[in-house]
């Protein structure tokens, strides 16, 4: 019997203000490309990427959401079934960092408390314009009880680590809730899909 294409299928959301580099991070990770002239995301887009974490093969369905207020109603529906959420701000923009609070409030409103979260300070490639100190990032991350990381989609710094970190956090949650997940769901609205040998690799996570 042949091995499955992957063991788990996880749905990730990338959220944050418009212009913080969400699409740039996604395309750097999935396609290893970068452009300084991305078209603003309209609604939601997504990419697929497979990776291995400690011998576990995971397929990621990564959703890139629009940050503008007028798309909030549209993108809110995509929180359903998410296993992990990446909150992104621009380290060169104090207002986008201040709005992190609003994004975490939106997560709390739309997701169960056990959804994995990661706070990311992007565009960390211009020291002379950096407006948010690393210590401030860590302080806010500690307040919300989440991990944090600084990235640069432009220079390809910590982008792979960002996705590996959130995936590892989801796997830890899966391990802590193995009894519930074996029953087909966590009981908190987050479903973890395991693909066994012989099963179709097209099975969805939500």
Key terms:
206 residues; alpha/beta; Rossmann fold; 7-stranded mixed sheet; 7 strands; 32% helix; globular; disordered C terminus
Summarize the structure.
This protein is α/β, with parallel strands linked by helices and 206 residues long.
Question: Can you offer a commentary on this structure?
Answer:
InterPro entries: P-loop_NTPase, Rab, Small_GTP-bd, Small_GTPase. GO terms for molecular function: GTP binding; GTPase activity. Keywords: GTP-binding, Membrane, Nucleotide-binding. This is Ras-related protein Rab-35. It holds the Pfam family Ras. This protein has a single domain, classed as P-loop containing nucleotide triphosphate hydrolases (Rossmann fold). It is globular and about 50 Å long. The protein has helices spanning 22-31, 72-76, 94-98, 100-110, 134-144, 159-176, 178-182, and strands at residues 8-16, 44-53, 56-65, 84-90, 116-122, 147-150, 193-194. It is of the alpha/beta class. A hairpin with a 2-residue loop joins strand 2 (44-53) and strand 3. Mean pLDDT is 83; it is low at 179-191 and 200-206. Strands 1, 2, 3, 4, 5, 6 and 7 form a seven-stranded mixed sheet that branches. It is built from seven helices and seven strands.
């Amino acid at each position: 019997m042949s091995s499955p294409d992957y063991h788990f299928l996880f749905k990730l959301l990338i959220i944050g203000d418009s212009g913080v580099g969400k699409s740039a991070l996604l395309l750097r990770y999935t396609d290893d490309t970068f452009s300084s002239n991305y078209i603003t995301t309209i609604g939601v887009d997504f990419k697929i990427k497979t990776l291995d974490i400690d011998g576990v093969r995971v397929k990621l369905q990564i959703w890139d959401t629009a940050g503008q207020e007028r798309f909030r109603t549209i993108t809110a529906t995509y929180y359903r079934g998410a296993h992990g959420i990446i909150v992104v701000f621009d380290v060169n923009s104090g207002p986008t960092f201040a709005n992190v609070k609003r994004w975490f409030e939106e997560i709390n409103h739309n997701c169960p408390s056990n959804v994995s979260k990661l706070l990311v300070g992007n565009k960390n490639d211009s020291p002379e314009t950096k407006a948010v100190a690393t210590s401030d990032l860590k302080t806010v991350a500690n307040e919300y009880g989440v991990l944090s990381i600084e990235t640069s989609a432009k220079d390809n710094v910590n982008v792979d680590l960002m996705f590996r970190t959130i995936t590892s956090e989801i796997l830890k949650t899966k391990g802590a809730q193995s009894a519930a997940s074996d029953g087909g769901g966590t009981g908190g609205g987050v479903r973890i899909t395991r693909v066994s040998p012989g099963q179709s690799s097209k099975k969805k996570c939500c």
